[in-house]
Amino acid sequence: MKKNLRLVPFLKKIVECINRKDGYELSSMLNVKNIHSSQLMNQISDPKHAKDLCMSNLPLNWNETVYYHLRALYLYQNGNVIDAATEQCNCAQNFHRIFSDLDRWALPLHYIIHSDLYYLSALADKELAEKNEKATKLEDTARAINKAFTQCITDRRTPMTNSRKWGTYYIANLLFRTYFKLKSTNLCKNILRAIKVGDMPELENFPVAQQATFHYYCGLLNFLDEQYHEAGNHLLKAFRYIRGKSIKNELIILHLLIPIRLLSGVLPSKNLLNYHSSISETYSGMINAIHSGNVKEFEHCLRKQEKVLIRHNTYLTIEKCKLLCMRRLFKKVYIIEGMPTRMDVDSFRHALNFVAMNLDNDEVECLLAVMIEKGYIRGYISHEKRVVVLSASNAFPDITSISLA
């Protein structure tokens, strides 16, 4: 108990921070990963005995919030992340009661309580899964962070400079991360709808890091929905914001942007391919194959990089580029034959045979029909005569002019 009395200066400092509305200092003091946390643990023999000190030295609701933080910290420092996640969730839920009466100054603490909750819950679920037990900590976390998001975006206080709305994008990004971890990306649309009608300050007025993360998740959601044009716009903005700041994040974005650019008919420059060895290793072979129209080589490179592409969730997108590779080959045949308005299907079949793609005329007709339907080729097929009737002008339009939808 005497050891726990050493907590009193810590608790008094918390009261001082509350009184002077110092959210940054509070966020440092109540951070489970802070270097001071291990030092604080040396002052606690048992967090249960610290409860009375919290109750007698801290304001109402703050006392339980800090107590649950100390419980989470104690358990985390002693290797029990499962129970630590539970106590941190209790900490967050108690803080929600306080936060509804606070304004912008408390946002740093709001952030750290919920980011610590995500951190501990992710560790806890990993450990539970390894034990073949039901992993539900992140589900509880999602509900707590959703409450935190609502408390930010629904704040109606004026002036706006003091509003909790300034915490909306930080918490939204954390909620995106949680939903992606839970593979519940469909719930992300609820966040976007809320922001759209939330009478928010312009995104450009928020910290650059929050803008970059928000654009990244919007781009990723668009990418998964095959809305490639919108995805490309968001991801390009995110990349520009983080350029030169984090090679890891740059690569994550580039592994999404490059497939989008390829699908839109834009081959990456040598400078971009040489930006990092992993980019060059993954895409150079496929890009060369697309440029030359070598479908067999494209398939070979696709198989070779399959694991990498699956890891980045881009395999299916890159696979769609096979049709562009064939189109490149067909355009070469079209040019060699003098750009006629009528071409035998057999001419395209022979070209595919030349690159070791042994297809019959029906299969080639099917490929041509898909290209015409997508706008890659302008014309129509006469099935009876096995002839492709091509547009007299611009039979093979620029891919960049074609919608990616």
UniProtKB/TrEMBL annotation:
This one is known as PCI domain-containing protein
Give the family per the record: Belongs to the CSN12 family.
SMART domains from the xrefs?
PAM (SM00753)
Q: Which UniProt keywords apply?
A: Coiled coil
UniProt GO BP: poly(A)+ mRNA export from nucleus; post-transcriptional tethering of RNA polymerase II gene DNA at nuclear periphery; transcription elongation by RNA polymerase II
Q: Is Lipid biosynthesis among the key words of this record?
A: no
Q: Listed GO molecular functions? A: double-stranded DNA binding; RNA binding
Q: Which residues cross the membrane?
A: none
